[in-house]
């Protein structure tokens, strides 16, 4: 049996949807904090296991009879690493054979500016040290984040970011989830690492040009300095910690951390992943 954590989130649901096309439903379980929020899964035959990353006992119980756990990375910035360790410890105690983890595809761990990204590598280290088989999915930045980065007024005022000419190998979250499920559905053993990126890397200049083409409205990308970005975000009412987190993402992009591509996503999907044009058309409903 495969247990998918974060099962009511976008990525977890994408994985489960694809698993249901590959495996009998009785081989799939979903870890949820609130059974009511996952009520749509039960009629499909998916077993619901209630628990959360902060409850070791509940995690161990949820993993009873499970062979593989997909640990979808948590969003609690302060506790995420400890929560991930709780899941790995519970898996080991419950006799789980394999832990899979959804981390990030980044070029150089030692040169990251964004401290939040370090927990992905630290989680990978912990899984490897556990003695369990590890399947590590290093996901590119979701193309789904572009509307957030571009801002609500992108078609009116353009895109203004401190990312320079940095490029990102964006991939759709749904396609990454599909690829993850395809790996989990196949039996295998030992440590494996997959880098799930888009077919090429694009700059925000490419994003602006593509949005212009799709919408028929001129959208311009303007690289700005960090201080100007900070002032811009504060003027919009964004709290200082959030501004700094956003800025760290952009600095890593400018430094080339997100630019590397592989063909692994295409191989696992059995088709070419969505291009920037295809993705933006769907995300912006153009």
Task: Looking at this protein, list some descriptive labels.
286 residues, alpha/beta, Rossmann fold, 7-stranded parallel sheet, two-stranded parallel ribbon, 11 strands, globular
Summarize the structure.
The chain is of the alpha/beta class. The chain is 42% helix and 16% strand.
Low-confidence stretches: none
The SSE string, one letter per element, is EHEEHEHEHEHHEEHEEHEHHHH
Figure out the total of helices: 12
The fourth-level CATH homologous superfamily of the domain at 2-140 and 172-197 and 261-270 is NAD(P)-binding Rossmann-like Domain
Radius of gyration: 20 Å
Estimate the strand proportion: 15-25%
Question: What's the arrangement of strands in the largest beta sheet?
Answer: 3-2-1-4-5-6-9
Q: What percentage of residues falls in helices of 4 or more residues?
A: 40-55%
Do you know the CATH architecture of the domain at 2-140 and 172-197 and 261-270? Answer: 3-Layer(aba) Sandwich
Largest sheet report: 7 strands, parallel
- What CATH first level of the domain at 2-140 and 172-197 and 261-270 would be assigned? Alpha Beta
Q: Within the CATH hierarchy, at the fold level, what is the topology of the domain at 2-140 and 172-197 and 261-270?
A: Rossmann fold
Spatial separation of the terminal alpha carbons: 40 Å
Task: State the shape.
Answer: globular
Question: How many E-type strands?
Answer: 11
Mean pLDDT score = 95
SSE class: alpha/beta
């Amino acid at each position: 049996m495969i247990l998918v954590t974060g099962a009511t989130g976008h990525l977890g649901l994408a994985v489960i949807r694809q698993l249901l096309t590959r495996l009998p439903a009785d081989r799939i379980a979903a870890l949820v904090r609130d059974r009511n929020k996952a009520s749509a899964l039960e009629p499909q035959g998916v077993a619901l296991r209630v628990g959360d990353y902060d409850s070791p006992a509940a995690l161990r119980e949820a993993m009873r009879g499970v062979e593989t756990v997909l640990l979808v990375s948590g969003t609690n910035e302060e506790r995420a690493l400890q929560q991930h360790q709780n899941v790995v410890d519970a898996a080991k105690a419950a006799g789980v054979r394999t832990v899979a983890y959804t981390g990030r595809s980044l070029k150089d761990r030692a040169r990251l500016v964004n401290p939040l990204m370090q927990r992905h590598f630290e989680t990978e280290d912990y899984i490897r040290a556990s003695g369990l088989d590890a399947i590590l999915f290093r996901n590119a930045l979701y193309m789904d984040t572009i509307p957030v980065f571009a801002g609500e007024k992108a078609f009116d005022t353009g895109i203004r970011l401190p990312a320079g000419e940095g490029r990102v190998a964006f991939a759709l979250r749904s396609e990454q989830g599909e690829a993850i499920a395809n790996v989990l559905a196949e039996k295998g053993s030992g440590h494996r690492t997959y880098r799930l990126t888009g077919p090429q890397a694009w700059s925000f200049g490419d994003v602006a040009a593509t949005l212009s083409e799709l919408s028929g409205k001129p959208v311009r990308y303007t690289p700005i300095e960090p201080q100007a970005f900070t002032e811009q975000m504060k003027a919009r009412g964004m709290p200082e910690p959030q501004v700094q987190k956003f800025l760290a993402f952009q600095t890593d992009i400018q430094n080339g951390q997100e630019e590397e591509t592989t063909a692994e996503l295409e191989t696992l999907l059995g088709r070419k992943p969505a291009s920037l044009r295809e993705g933006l058309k769907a995300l912006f409903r153009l």
